[in-house]
Amino acid sequence: MTAKITREEAQELLYHEAHLLDTWQFDAWVELYTLDAEFWMPAWRDEISTTQDPDRELSLIYYKGRRNLEDRVMRLTSGHSTASSPPARVLHQISNVRITHGDEAMADVCSGFVCHRHDTRMNRTDYVFGRYEHRLVIEAGVIRIAKKKIILLNDVIATSSDIYSI
Amino acid sequence: MAITDYIDDRPAEGVFRVNSAIFTDQAVFDAEIRAIFEGGWVFLGLSSQAEKPHDYFTTQIGRFAVMVQRNGQGELGAFINACPHKGARLAQLRQGNAPLHVCPYHSWSFDSSGRNKAIKSKHAGCYSAAFDQDDHGLARLPGFADYRGFLFGSLSADVPPLAEHLGEAAKLLDLVADQSEDGLELVPGQVTFTFAANWKMQLENCSDAYHFTSTHPSYIRVLERRQQAFSQDVVASVWENSDYWKDDATGIGGGSFSFANGHALNWGIFGVTPASPLFDRAGSLAQRHGEAKRDWMFNMRNLTIFPNMQIAENASSQLRIIRPLAANVTEIRTWCLAPKGESAAARRQRIKQYEDFFNPTGMATPDDTISYENCQMGHGGGPSRWLQGYARGMTASVAGGNRFGDLISLQPEQSVLANPQLCDETLYHSYYRAWANRMAKELEA
């Protein structure tokens, strides 16, 4: 029987993901995800509830399949996107990591985050904050991300936002 | 300064120039708020945002908080969203349902027709007779009108009827409204973003075909990658099904139409493609409206209803409301616009294209908004100078319409029809002619 994912392991993976984003190691970041991973940042339906159904309601970002994250990385690193050249300097801080559900093969992990961003082009600093809900799974002995949901609490987007700055 | 110091419009000499000061000057901005946003028709929202009795939604005109509300009889009204007692904003949510608004400050209350229902402790209040003669209801907007579910309001009573303001551009709203017999709705989920640049950058960019290949090459490469390696996971886009924007495209690919009062359309031929969310109703739309109008519904269309409303129907359908916050700060609220009753698959396709292309968290819009900020930095705000972005297409622009517009009986003031590389910039002239008409008095006062 495989051991369950511990909180320490979950926390380590979340910190590792944050570090890869913070240091612009996007190819390594994509590798953390399963091929059929879901990456979802819902929009807000009103003042108190986010959208719940990505097929019938709007999301800020919704992709099913790692392939789509590769597209985003390709755009980000292509040198052909004004918005991404240069990328903003970001620092993710993750806290309150808890496993809310888990068995031998997976763990649902919730956490809080703040992502500070400094846009060197505009010399402008801002931040976003919210909650993450990760679903971690074990694939061939390696913990990977099968789902990441980002609940963005300050959702008036300052000019633009991308997969690495949320 | 005279208006000609801001807009240099000499058609006979082939000159149209805009001074960079209109993007940076505080006096210009203040005059715009008065003359453009508080002095005439602006778009408020869709009637479907307040569908049932007592539903309301809140918005803003210029500096004023505004509430659009449906009363118990189902009639829509538009009011200044402020209690006449002390000015507190009454409705504080984006939308809701309220037969009665009770001011949270001193409990004056108002029904959904805007009438004052009660003043707390009125009889003990020792009011004068003059007070009793006042109307204590909410202030109605002097102008409020509904064109096929598109609601417009005006803080000034001195406006032409809405139909006159919209003119021929109303036929382009028909192309949106007629996509469903049941009307239009906004997909749940709202997106708001701000950028550090002047609001007219957004106004222009919606009509700007010239920037597409140079601003969005990273998006175009993603489209190419998706075409090369087909995967069911990826988002199908109408852009990849069209040649009209490609460098090697030939023949007539689209053009532009300019209308009175500052409205403009930039359009391209997309064809009836399965990547469009309308595809599964292509037959029924043709039956109901004829093939010509149906094909126009499938065309790429970026419509501006001056000054604050844009409907971009290219990748999916986006409704935008532009709100200037300062000369160099703008807020954009956007929604995914959809015909009611479309199939689940069509709705999914519409939503996915919207998110991929239009969102400020997507793969195209960020490159636009960053460019606006680059322009704003380039304008600087120091000594003003004439910009050169308004000359392209001047010798292709003709008075009246053309055979494509004729298909939907469109009679614009000016039109351009050309190969895809022309990427006409003359349609901004309609914005600035309307702008100059409205601003002349304010700026020269």
UniProtKB/TrEMBL annotation, chain A:
<comment type="similarity">
    <text>Belongs to the bacterial ring-hydroxylating dioxygenase beta subunit family.</text>
</comment>
<protein>
    <submittedName>
        <fullName>Aromatic-ring-hydroxylating dioxygenase subunit beta</fullName>
    </submittedName>
</protein>
<keyword id="KW-0223">Dioxygenase</keyword>
<keyword id="KW-0614">Plasmid</keyword>
<keyword id="KW-0560">Oxidoreductase</keyword>
<dbReference type="Pfam" id="PF00866">
    <property type="entry name" value="Ring_hydroxyl_B"/>
</dbReference>
<dbReference type="InterPro" id="IPR000391">
    <property type="entry name" value="Rng_hydr_dOase-bsu"/>
</dbReference>
<dbReference type="GO" id="GO:0051213">
    <property type="term" value="F:dioxygenase activity"/>
</dbReference>
<dbReference type="InterPro" id="IPR032710">
    <property type="entry name" value="NTF2-like_dom_sf"/>
</dbReference>
TrEMBL record, chain B:
<keyword id="KW-0001">2Fe-2S</keyword>
<dbReference type="InterPro" id="IPR015879">
    <property type="entry name" value="Ring_hydroxy_dOase_asu_C_dom"/>
</dbReference>
<dbReference type="InterPro" id="IPR017941">
    <property type="entry name" value="Rieske_2Fe-2S"/>
</dbReference>
<protein>
    <submittedName>
        <fullName>SRPBCC family protein</fullName>
    </submittedName>
</protein>
<dbReference type="InterPro" id="IPR001663">
    <property type="entry name" value="Rng_hydr_dOase-A"/>
</dbReference>
<keyword id="KW-0479">Metal-binding</keyword>
<keyword id="KW-0408">Iron</keyword>
<dbReference type="Pfam" id="PF00355">
    <property type="entry name" value="Rieske"/>
</dbReference>
<keyword id="KW-0411">Iron-sulfur</keyword>
<keyword id="KW-0614">Plasmid</keyword>
<keyword id="KW-0560">Oxidoreductase</keyword>
<comment type="similarity">
    <text>Belongs to the bacterial ring-hydroxylating dioxygenase alpha subunit family.</text>
</comment>
<dbReference type="InterPro" id="IPR036922">
    <property type="entry name" value="Rieske_2Fe-2S_sf"/>
</dbReference>
<feature type="domain" description="Rieske">
    <location>
        <begin position="41"/>
        <end position="141"/>
    </location>
</feature>
<dbReference type="Pfam" id="PF00848">
    <property type="entry name" value="Ring_hydroxyl_A"/>
</dbReference>
